[in-house]
Each structure stands twice: as structure tokens, then as C-alpha cells.
Design brief:
elongated, mainly alpha, 1 helix, about 0% strand
Length: about 50
């Protein structure tokens, strides 16, 4: 959160869900019925030192 995504938890969750949905649509277009396991995993980043 904060490095390559929105700083807030809500913003990061919405952004991540949009990316996951896009991937699911692409996968289903290539091979319909394919099972997908998705995870909403976020790691915070300290904006002062980049760690």
C-alpha cells in the first residue's frame, strides 16, 4: 500500500479486486470453465525509507 497502489486499505482492495476481475475475465475468455483461486494480499510500504 502506498508504493504502487493507493495508500488506504479500501483503495488498495478496490484496485486489487479490479485487477483480479480483469485476470479472471481474460482467463475465462481463453479457456471457459477454468477454476481460479484468488487472494487479496496487500503489503504496506514505509513511504519514508521505501521498506
Amino acid at each position: 500500500m502506498g508504493g504502487t497502489a493507493p495508500v488506504t486499505v479500501v483503495g488498495s482492495t478496490i484496485s486489487n479486486n479490479a485487477e483480479l476481475l480483469a485476470a479472471v475475465v481474460q482467463i475465462q475468455c481463453i479457456k471457459p470453465g477454468t477454476g481460479i483461486i484468488a487472494n487479496n494480499f496487500m503489503t504496506p510500504m514505509n513511504m519514508e525509507n521505501g521498506v
